[in-house]
Amino acid sequence: MEAVKSVDWNKIKSIFNNAKITKPSKKKPAVYELVSSFDIETTSYSNNGEDMAFMYIWQFSLENYVIYGRTWEEYFTFMDKLQRVGHVSHEQQLIVWVHNLSFEFQFIRKMIEWEKVFATDERKVVYGVTNQGFVYRDSYILAGYSLKLVAKNLHKHTIKKLVGFLDYSKTRTPETPMTDKEMEYSANDVIIVVDYIHEQIDEYGSITKIPLTNTGRVRAFTRDYVFYNHQKSHRKTGGTYSQYRRLMNILTIDAGTYKQAKRAFQGGFTHANANKQGQVIDNVSSFDFTSSYPTVMVSEKFPMSRASYPKINSLDELEKLMKKSACLFDIKFQGLQSKISFENYLSVSRCKVSNDCVADNGRIYSASNVTTTITDVDWWIIKRCYTWDSIELGTVRAFYREYLPKNFIKAIADLYQNKTKLKGITEKHGEYMRSKGMLNSMYGMSVTDIVRDEHTYDGEWETSSADMDKQLDDYNKKRTRFSYYLWGVWVTAYARRNLWLGILSCQDDYCYSDTDSIKIEHGDQHLDFIKRYNKWVVGKINAMCAFYHLDSKLFHPLTIKGVEKQLGVWDYEGVYTKFKTLG
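Above: the chain's sequence. Below: its structure in token form.
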């Protein structure tokens, strides 16, 4: 591979002539089964206090043929001729992969005529189609990794991300001479992307079948599992597909439920014991959960119905309801006061609080009035953390509670087994990382926002407010939907509860927690809790397996070294001889 400035157009013409063209459907344009990648290197500087940046070299790789230039004029002259030589058009497109397209887009957006730009948020570009027929797509959101990790995780190609060859503190211009090593560094980045996309083509069979994002990859895998149990011969007219569709037709959501669920949704719990902030602590033990979110997805019960609206007249009635139903409700506390000294649960950002609120780094210690929205699982934690003078209940929604669908759980088990069995096998590292990433994404796809503003680009960014009723209606009627937004809300709630079991047990020895891990003093004194918890969580997984007639071995596969790796248990990570947290 050699980066060249003087382009051999006969070579490029030969590459196009020998390329396969795929037309994915009647309504979609044909696409070259060619892999191309684009990248730039830039210099940042401050001009009278204003941050500025400009490009000083660009690289474009068509397969493994790398072309470079130093100015935008050279780039667009090259792309104009590439279109003519390759006969690229609306009807015959060429995909150009960019690792972190949002960055390059800021530089090229006003120099290109765009037919369509798809973005998940302003300046978060997924792809852009030009009027010439080039489709710029983001390889970063597909891989979910930096270029360095993408290179490391390739399993059919051997290439490393070069580091240390470019001094980013040096201001460069298109006139700045570049060494051979610097040129190799620049060309290396686009070759990594080309090699990565070739491996994706091998996996999916065509460049047109590669999903837009890593989450899209997980959706495709899970959809195939839950609808067809990975047996493509199953027709949509019967079997697993019909059963699953009947369930999805039941699991619909209205605007009021969606708004309340959005208010209740929280992520992981990351915080520190206020009594230990800033201190240097000796011999702090670290424990973490084995796949925290996947664990609760297979072991816990979730909303499995539309919302009902029971008439609740007292807290006692609500408590009785929560024993048999998943509950979502608004609540107002008067005279809220923490009753433990080592941690606080409620987040200021998720509540409406009175002006006299006392907060510990964003977590509520006390307040005369606190209004929030929670699930029955949050309530379990709050009761153990706070006292209050009185409460007022707002809207209460209740849901039938049951395990997630069997095939959904089997999909999680499949990914967990792959992650466990492939770990440590050098030649399988790429497959291991893919299984690990997909396993971690199983939760995320369940709680993706249903209602989102539309972000469009037409010379400038414009945002159109979401039509909630229409988007919810589309969500409810979507024939390929296989998850329910409320599942994701409860996943994080269950995971927080499991973490808080450790926090409450360790009490003053608790130092810090981060979603699925806990740091504690005197770790040996808390091993009985760890053992009890591990036995409890294994029992919950076994109960689910008995319910669905699944083999419990699915959830404790063997590693390459023959070690059993049980899903969900606390793992001992080791001891920090010196530990300090700023909160």
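The chain has 17 helices and 23 strands.
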